[in-house]
Amino acid sequence: MLNSTWSIRRLTPSPSLSPFFSLPTTNTPKLRPNQTPFRFMASTTQLQQQQQQSTSEFLTQRPYHPPTWASKLNPIPSHAFSLGHFPTPIHKWNLPNLPKDTEVWLKRDDLSGMQLSGNKVRKLEFLLADAVAQGADCIITIGGIQSNHCRATAVAAKYLNLDCFLILRTSKMLVEKDPGLTGNLLVERLVGAHIDLVSKEEYSRIGSLTLTNLLKEKLIKEGRKPYVIPVGGSNSLGTWGYIEAIREIENQVQKGTIKTSFDDIVVACGSGGTVAGLSIASCLSELKTKVTAYCVCDDPEYFYDYVQGLLDGLEAGVDSHDIVKIENAKGVGYAMSTAEELKFVKEVAESTAVILDPVYSGKAAYGMMKDMAENPRKWEGRKILFIHTGGLLGLYDKNEEIGSLVGGWRRMELDESIPRKDGTGKMF
């Protein structure tokens, strides 16, 4: 039995929308049975055609056909929504101080959308198709106070006219207070997500499954039809998002303009679904690329076990230890950054114009570069594809910590005798 004194602190969106704007709550995009996705880059003309098709298919539901090399996995999803802008680009990442003849390339899944961006979009394409198929009228999911997954879910759900209920984990000191409008929270609250706050201690004691089930039971009693998405969208169904991503990478490499093959795929690991999809798909496809994941919470053995469960749920018949190498990059704790890690994020942005989030890709890239510095021969001559999983909004939660690392401003010196001359637009 749960402690009867426990309760979820709820923040509800505005009860009514502007009279000039209203959304239906039950209509969902209709299935187009003859619509088949094509996600590859074979030439400039084909890329332009695909981008036009991707735009026209946005928010539509399509039948899903797996890659031939994944056809023995089970179960195979029947449908998916088009939620992201794919394929995401791959380009060379000119990081300084790489080992001899080492190349790092970047897969820009941070560019899969704007407010709906990052690696979670790929999972949500399958998860929300299942939710609609089951007749859901609302979505429940759970995560940290700055969860990228929760923000992406809130946006995607609203796109499909589904209400979204988020359970967000925060500190004991803040659980009774308004969580504010920083980063992901701003987007979630703008799109009208219902937010329930729990403390880290309550989350640890009760667990994410029980918390989401409690909310699910409550909503069912209120006459709703909720669909629960687990932490990070990481279940066996969500894993198909990154199985599909490997097909995308494979086509970009084999038929596109990259003209290179990769020895390694490197990615952050926070809930396990992205890693499970990348590793099993790389193993089954022609890529046969070594996957290294840097976990930003828990520990490697936890994720080997969790990924194994996802693989077993697909009847993959492989051992997680054989298809992925998981390294620890948690540092001082999940979503907690050292001064050295934040300095690294700033230096990468300054030298390459690639902005890493401090929770996931920032820690993974930091772990990779640290290992390269300590073990250069291990990486010499290798071609690495780093998956940027997004999370830019998480940086806004670190503005005070990172403020001392950035400069680049000064008061412009102006002499009062300088004559006035207007340009285009007075701007006042």
List the helices and strands and how they pair.
Blueprint: E1 9-11, H1 44-57, E2 61-63, E3 79-81, E4 90-92, E5 103-108, H2 120-133, E6 138-144, H3 148-159, E7 163-170, H4 184-190, E8 194-199, H5 200-206, H6 208-221, E9 226-228, H7 236-255, E10 264-269, H8 273-284, E11 290-295, H9 300-313, H10 320-323, E12 325-328, H11 339-352, H12 361-374, H13 376-379, E13 383-388, H14 399-402
Parallel strand pairs: 5-13, 6-7, 6-9, 7-8, 10-11, 10-13, 11-12
Antiparallel strand pairs: 1-8, 2-3, 4-5
Helix pairs in contact: 2-3, 2-7, 3-4, 7-8, 8-9
Description of the molecule:
Helix 2 (120-133) packs across helix 3 (148-159), helix 2 crosses helix 7 (236-255) and helix 8 packs across helix 9 (300-313). The strands form 3 sheets. Strands 4-5-13-10-11-12 form a 6-stranded mixed beta sheet, sandwiched between helices. Strands 1-8-7-6-9 form a 5-stranded mixed beta sheet. It is α/β, with parallel strands linked by helices and 428 residues long. It has helices at residues 44-57, 120-133, 148-159, 184-190, 200-206, 208-221, 236-255, 273-284, 300-313, 320-323, 339-352, 361-374, 376-379, 399-402; strands at 9-11, 61-63, 79-81, 90-92, 103-108, 138-144, 163-170, 194-199, 226-228, 264-269, 290-295, 325-328, 383-388. The chain is built from 14 helices and 13 strands. Helices cover 36% and strands 15% of the residues. Residues 1-7 and 16-47 have low confidence and may be disordered. The longest helix has 20 residues, at 236-255. Strand 10, helix 8 (273-284) and strand 11 form a beta-alpha-beta unit.
